[in-house]
Design a protein that fits this description.
The complex is a heterodimer of chains A (279) and B (198). Chain A contains ten helices and 14 strands. Chain A has 279 residues and is of the alpha+beta class. Classes of the chains: A alpha+beta (279), B alpha+beta (198). The complex binds flavin-adenine dinucleotide and FE2/S2 (inorganic) cluster (2 copies).
Chain lengths: 279, 198
């Protein structure tokens, strides 16, 4: 018989995680509960749904970071004025995840921990150079999101750790943000390709850009080659340089959702558009 | 485990494994068979219920998660007056407009659409429903069902907000017409602010 624990605080949650490493951590269930009736019952559940405080979204003015609790649902993320103001592409991505019912339940912590190569928030976190706050009975640590996803669905999360928050640096006003998801349909479709970028434009040229893609590799990726190719260029030239740099940077696979050729073509188009849309 | 919940406004308790899907608890343990299973994967929305006032796919909710929470199913949309059942505006319009054919998707659409009417057709994130929701209080601010939207905007909002309710029969057009008709009915005050006759 499956045991059920509902911690009342983050401290209780990490204590439960340490005490019962074999239990499933369950948040909104939109990944874990799929076809649950056809799968063996787990030994136990640690239920994080609506864990008090876990869905809070606030501004850490000192660090210049937006702190988004791991338990924040996609509805909370997309509606929160601080997210809309400081991390508009995260709000935009939240609005394109699944459909209303999925957005009401799916959490940002679940998306991060599930670490699917098609997780829609993940390229956004890469482009925004987000950090994660990871918690265990041993303490709390911060890790750049870039170092979290270590391979196909593998992460740097310790066996006794929980994701407690996503920390997003507040974008400087001069930084322009880009997000685009390409799927078969606007709602309820898994991405064929998605792209996110943060572009610092100064005096009409690109000073620095962070460019990230999803669904084109075994994990969400930053494309350093594209980022290097565009520095010092005006938007129109940057667009062409970015397009040209994509082919050397990724080798997407073919699967049920799309072909390698299609993904590469779309990734090139999106890389160009990030910059051409600036002008 | 013993799960105690407020089901369609009334206290209910049921002894179930915590991993069982809310969908199965409703249909098999509580004999509320209005909620349908389409896909079991969160894709189709046939199993939509309100959990603490928000539309969720009951096939993706573990029974344990419902302890101490409020669940509204399609059976909870109608009101009763002197022993007579009065359908929600959305239900009446789905019937009147031909927005239901085989009916598998209909309970999910009715629950979702009734929720939309209660909180206004503002799309999530467009400002009409601002304020971080915490589950419980979502329906609290009584936005007008049409939220000041033009016909075309309201139609687009209905399409976006019902995008997680898949229908194999109707082609959606008559579903959208029914929801808009219900929204107008509620806005005109025929059915009171909640879509339920007062
Ligand atoms: C129909 C449908 C459509 C979908 N569409 C999209 C889409 O468009 N884009 C997209 O990116 N995703 C999509 N998803 C996937 C899913 O909705 C998201 O990944 C969601 O963010 C998962 O969050 P959750 O809270 O539901 O996670 P859960 O299912 O509860 O958990 C997922 C995993 O994360 C772990 N976990 C959860 N919270 C924590 C935590 N705080 N610390 C450590 N581990 C934790 C769990 O143990 C589990 O392994 C879709 C799913 C469905 C069913
Ligand atoms: S049965 Fe739950 S979404 Fe299809
Ligand atoms: S009426 Fe048959 S699926 Fe919608």
């Amino acid at each position: 018989m499956t045991a059920y624990l509902r911690p009342r605080s983050l401290a209780e949650a990490v204590a439960a995680r340490a005490a019962e490493p074999g239990y499933l951590v369950l948040a909104g269930g939109t990944d874990l509960m799929v076809n649950a009736n056809h799968r063996p019952a787990p030994a136990g559940l640690i239920d994080l749904w609506r864990l008090p405080g876990a869905g809070e979204i606030s501004l850490d003015a000192e660090r210049g970071q937006l702190a988004i609790g791991a338990g924040a649902t996609w509805l909370q993320v997309q509606r929160h004025p601080l997210v809309v103001r400081h991390a508009a592409i995260l709000a935009a991505a939240a609005r394109e995840i699944g459909a209303l019912q999925i957005q009401a339940r799916g959490t940002i912590g679940g998306n991060v921990a599930n670490s699917s190569p098609v997780g829609d928030s993940l390229p956004v976190l890469l482009a925004l150079e987000a950090e994660l706050e990871l918690c265990s009975v041993r303490g709390t640590r911060r890790l750049p999101y870039r170092e979290f996803c270590t391979g196909y669905r593998t992460t740097a999360l310790g066996a006794d750790e929980l994701v407690s928050a996503v920390l997003v640096p507040v974008a400087a006003p001069a930084v322009r943000l880009f997000w685009r998801k390409v799927g078969t349909r606007r709602a309820q479709s898994i991405s064929k390709v998605m792209a996110a970028a943060a572009i610092h434009l100064e005096d009409g040229v690109v000073r620095r850009a962070t460019v990230a893609f999803g669904a084109v590799a075994d994990r969400p990726v930053r494309l350093a080659g594209v980022e290097a190719a565009v520095v010092g260029l005006a938007p129109a030239q940057a667009a062409e340089a970015a397009r040209a740099a994509v082919a050397g940077a990724i080798a997407p696979i073919s699967d049920v959702r799309s072909t390698s050729d299609y993904r590469l073509q779309v990734a090139e188009n999106l890389a160009a558009r990030m910059f051409s849309e600036l002008s | 485990m013993k799960v105690t919940l407020t089901l369609n406004g009334q206290e209910a308790a049921v002894e179930v494994p915590p991993w069982r899907r809310l969908l199965d608890v409703l249909r098999d343990d509580l004999s509320l068979t209005g909620t349908k299973e389409g896909c079991g994967e969160g894709e189709c929305g046939a199993c939509t219920v309100l959990l603490d006032g928000e539309p969720v796919n009951s096939c993706l909710v573990a029974a344990g998660q419902c302890d101490g929470r409020a669940v509204t199913t399609v059976e909870g949309l109608a009101t009763h007056r002197r022993g007579e059942e009065i359908l929600h505006a959305v239900q009446r319009q789905l019937v009147a407009c031909g927005g239901a054919q085989c009916g598998i998707c209909t309970p999910g659409i009715a629950v979702c659409a009734a929720h939309l009417l209660e909180r206004g057709l503002g799309a999530p994130g467009d400002g009409a429903n601002d304020g971080a929701s915490d589950g419980a209080g979502v329906g609290a601010q009584a936005a007008l069902p049409l939220a000041g939207k033009s016909e075309a905007e309201a139609r687009a909002a209905v399409r976006e907000l019902l995008a997680g309710n898949i229908c194999r029969c109707t082609g959606y057009q008559l579903v959208v017409e029914a929801v808009l008709a219900a929204a107008r009915e509620v806005a005109d005050g025929d059915a009171g602010a909640t879509g339920r006759p007062s």
